[in-house]
């Protein structure tokens, strides 16, 4: 893919730039894989200092997910920008003591182990909040801390299956299909971060922290949105419809001569515009198609007619025509096309960072912007254990001799990159 990296309008040299609205906030990140790392990556994007405590030898499991670039996993690189890594064995008494020492000066701790794991280590919410009553402890899990499935293992596809998401995804009449995006895991990360920010606001009033219980299950189910209400009021299950919409017509991906073009007439006033763009005056003049409800009832007549017309021209041609008639539309882009799009570049959604091992690499940019306040540039995902010694020196005043001894005995940096 040709990378087009434009000068950033929202970043500036660190010496002069704003770190973000969460500047000064310290987050202890004990998470792995996707949901937790996504939550802490959002907090880092917003200016928080995120210390990622990784297990000895392998670190975050995603460091072992192929494909690799010079030994670094694409998966880990995608979810850990802006963080610092230290390797600590929490099963060792001295490792647990390091965590307790860091907790004393932390604002947030976030973990996504199965419920009960941290308690068995003596590092659960109650124990750590006794050290620091201002601590916000966020536990992200598959099914939450309570309920009949609380201890059950869960991954993204399990979440999508259990929340009804898979049942409405895929082609009409076809088998259930998992979304290409890991929406189950991602919902845990998004709502975990939202819960933390809410608890921080409360703490600004009460002075006390709180346990935040975020789950992939709850987050994904909450995203059912109007589909849940459709089931409530009709007593029927929504069905998969491919790219179409259960209520809005036309609202779908249609074939062009060299790809696909999305047409989305979410309001009635777009319908006559589309009919003019398609050169179908009979459809536009038909009083039986003037409203959304009428078009929905005649979906099987309208959509094949549109598809037959759109096949006659290229995506580029349809884009020019639909734009001229102010009809909502979009080409169906590949991931590489989306990343290279001028709007993605203009919005700083693709930026370059300097990685310890890989040099200059592209990563996704911050999804939230703050006009008028330039933030410091993003930093690269860390190599395993890149910052262990630095953090122990600076935060806990460990001597070089103590650090060397802990390293030699495998309490810290076991398996870390050298």
TrEMBL record:
Keywords for this protein: Transferase
InterPro entries linked to this entry: CoA-transferase_III_domain, CoA-Trfase_fam_III, CoA-Trfase_III_dom3_sf, CoA-Trfase_III_dom_1_sf
Keyword Ribosomal protein annotated: no
GO molecular function, one term: CoA-transferase activity
Transferase listed as a keyword: yes
Annotated transmembrane regions: none
Annotated Pfam families: CoA_transf_3
Record-given protein name: CoA transferase
Species this protein is from: Teichococcus wenyumeiae
Lineage, broadest ranks: Bacteria, Pseudomonadati, Pseudomonadota, Alphaproteobacteria, Acetobacterales
């Amino acid at each position: 893919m040709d990378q087009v990296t434009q000068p950033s309008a929202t970043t500036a040299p660190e010496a002069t730039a704003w770190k973000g609205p969460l500047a000064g906030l310290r987050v202890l990140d004990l998470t792995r894989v996707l949901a937790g790392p996504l939550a802490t990556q959002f907090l880092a994007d917003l200016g928080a200092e995120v210390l990622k405590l990784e297990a000895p030898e392998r670190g975050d499991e995603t460091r072992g997910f192929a494909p690799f670039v010079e030994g670094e996993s694409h998966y880990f690189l995608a979810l850990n920008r802006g963080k610092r890594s230290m390797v600590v064995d929490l099963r060792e008494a001295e490792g647990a003591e390091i965590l307790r020492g860091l907790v004393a000066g932390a604002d947030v701790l976030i973990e996504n182990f199965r419920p009960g794991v941290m308690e068995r280590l003596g590092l659960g919410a109650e124990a750590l909040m006794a050290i620091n009553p201002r601590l916000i402890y966020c536990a992200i899990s598959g099914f939450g801390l309570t309920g009949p499935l609380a201890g059950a293992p869960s991954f993204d596809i399990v979440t999508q299956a259990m929340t009804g998401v898979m049942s409405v995804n895929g082609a009409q009449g076809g088998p259930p299909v998992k979304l290409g995006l890991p929406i189950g895991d991602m919902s845990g990360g998004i709502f975990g971060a939202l819960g933390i920010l809410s608890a921080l606001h409360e703490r600004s009033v009460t002075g006390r922290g709180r346990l935040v219980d975020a789950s992939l299950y709850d987050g994904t189910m909450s995203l059912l949105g109007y589909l849940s209400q459709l089931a409530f009021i009709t007593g029927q299950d929504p069905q998969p419809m491919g790219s179409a919409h259960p209520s809005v017509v036309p609202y779908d991906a249609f074939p062009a001569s060299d790809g696909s073009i999305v047409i989305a007439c979410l309001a009635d006033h777009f319908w006559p515009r589309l009919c003019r763009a398609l050169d179908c005056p009979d459809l536009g003049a038909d009083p039986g198609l003037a409203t959304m409800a009428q078009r929905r009832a005649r979906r099987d007549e309208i959509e094949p007619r549109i598809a037959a017309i759109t096949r006659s021209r290229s995506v580029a041609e349809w884009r020019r025509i639909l734009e001229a008639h102010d009809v909502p539309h979009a080409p169906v882009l590949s991931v590489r096309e989306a990343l290279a799009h001028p709007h993605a570049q203009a919005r700083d959604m693709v930026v370059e960072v300097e990685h310890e091992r890989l040099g200059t690499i592209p990563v996704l940019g911050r999804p939230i912007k703050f006009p008028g306040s330039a933030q410091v540039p993003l930093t690269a995902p860390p190599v395993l254990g890149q910052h262990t010694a630095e953090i122990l020196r600076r935060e806990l005043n460990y001597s070089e001799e103590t650090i060397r001894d802990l390293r030699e005995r495998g309490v810290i940096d076991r398996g870390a990159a050298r």
